[in-house]
């Protein structure tokens, strides 16, 4: 079905946008009017989905409070137009619109709509909570640019850890970082990272540090292991992961590879028992990511464990002042 998406500021938005939200949220879902209409409307871009005969069918809004994060909200399709793929088309349009603007998309999903957003590349990032009497969960997409490049329908749940069975190939730094962040952001307990060095441009980014911090603090069994060959760049220049490690020593640990024992020539990151980001060599951002690749993860985890057991701690890092 052909559906057209039109974009407006709140000041120039047609009355259809307010009418659809009034009918779906206030009248159908019993959201209090004082919660539905807020100041965010003034700063948001508003999108109206219309049918070929120009009949309004659905709405959504997109806004940003931080330069790298876009927020999707107020998605609503009129009852008579549901089940026709209009919501999917509208959400894909928002993702494409965001691809050049934001590194991350967030939204608050009604619990029953979680699978709808998962099909578009979003994953859950909170516990369930109540909003206007309706159960919600926070969701995010950490790779809108990559999701926007994918043909619709080829991946049932793109980048969903434990579900997306098709590999993602990458040959650029940006693509690799988006895949890596998407993987780390979904790890529930275990994250093991093996590389030559903890490159500052790659691993000393604010978002990566926050994802690692969230994982490490999630529960007492969280385990982040960093296995590298060379710690000198970390000694010469402060690194956020090192500072985080020294604040959470029971959850995050770093060891140096023992060169006298066999070691891998390809760097990798593994998340829980399903996810892997694998590079072909230490020098180039080229490789693949698998979000449901338990067989490969098992083999890499065994190799990592052998290198880890033979490794040693960095005495110089331990002596650095906080």
Write a structural description:
The protein has 322 residues and is an alpha+beta fold. It is 35% helix and 26% strand. The protein contains 13 helices and 15 strands. The longest helix is centred in the C-terminal third of the chain and has 17 residues, at 294-310. The chain is elongated and about 70 Å long. The protein starts with a strand and ends with a helix. The mean pLDDT is 93.
Defining traits:
7-stranded mixed beta sheet; 8-stranded mixed beta sheet; 35% helix; 2 domains; single chain; Endonuclease, Chain A; 26% strand; alpha+beta; 322 residues
CATH class of the largest domain: Alpha Beta
CATH topology of the largest domain: Endonuclease, Chain A
- Overall outline: elongated
Strand content: 25-35%
Our measurement of the CA-to-CA distance between the termini, rounded to an integer number of angstroms, reads 59 Å
Say which CATH homologous superfamily of the largest domain is assigned.
Endonuclease Chain A
Order of helices and strands: EHHHEEEHEHEEEHEHEHHEHHEEEEHH
- Which value, in Å, is the CA radius of gyration? 22 Å
Mean pLDDT, rounded to whole units?
93
Protein topology:
Elements: E1 4-9, H1 15-28, H2 33-36, H3 40-43, E2 45-50, E3 56-66, E4 69-77, H4 86-98, E5 104-110, H5 114-118, E6 123-124, E7 129-131, E8 134-141, H6 144-149, E9 168-170, H7 173-186, E10 190-195, H8 200-203, H9 206-218, E11 223-228, H10 232-236, H11 240-247, E12 252-256, E13 268-271, E14 275-279, E15 287-290, H12 294-310, H13 315-319
């Amino acid at each position: 079905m052909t559906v057209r998406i039109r974009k407006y500021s709140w000041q120039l938005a047609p009355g259809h946008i307010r009418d659809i939200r009034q009918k779906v949220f206030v009248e159908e879902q019993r959201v209090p009017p004082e919660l539905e209409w807020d100041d965010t409307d003034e700063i948001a871009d508003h999108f109206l989905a219309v049918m070929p005969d120009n009949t309004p069918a659905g709405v959504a809004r997109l806004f940003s409070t931080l330069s790298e994060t876009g927020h999707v909200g107020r998605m609503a399709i009129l009852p008579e137009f549901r089940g026709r793929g209009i919501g999917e088309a509208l959400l894909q349009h928002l993702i494409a619109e965001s691809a050049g603007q934001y590194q991350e998309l967030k939204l608050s999903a009604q619990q029953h709509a979680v699978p709808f957003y998962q099909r578009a590349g979003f994953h859950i990032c909170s516990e369930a909570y109540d909003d206007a009497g309706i159960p919600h969960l926070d969701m995010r997409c950490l790779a809108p640019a990559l999701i926007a490049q994918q043909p619709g329908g080829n991946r049932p749940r793109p980048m969903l850890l434990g579900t997306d069975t098709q590999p993602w190939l990458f040959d650029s730094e940006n693509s690799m970082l988006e895949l890596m962040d998407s993987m780390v952001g979904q790890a529930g307990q275990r994250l093991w990272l093996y590389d030559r060095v903890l490159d500052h441009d790659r691993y000393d980014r604010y978002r990566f540090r926050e994802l690692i911090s969230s994982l490490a603090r999630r529960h007492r069994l969280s385990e982040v292991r960093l296995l590298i060959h060379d710690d000198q760049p970390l000694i010469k220049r402060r690194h956020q992961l090192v500072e985080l490690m020294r604040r959470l020593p029971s959850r995050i640990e770093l060891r140096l590879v023992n060169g006298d024992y066999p070691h891998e020539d390809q760097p990798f990151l593994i998340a829980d028992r399903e996810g892997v980001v694998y590079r072909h060599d230490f020098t180039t951002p080229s490789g693949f990511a698998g979000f449901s690749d338990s067989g490969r993860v098992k083999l890499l985890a065994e190799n990592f464990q052998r290198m880890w057991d033979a490794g040693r701690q960095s005495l110089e890092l331990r002596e650095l002042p906080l």
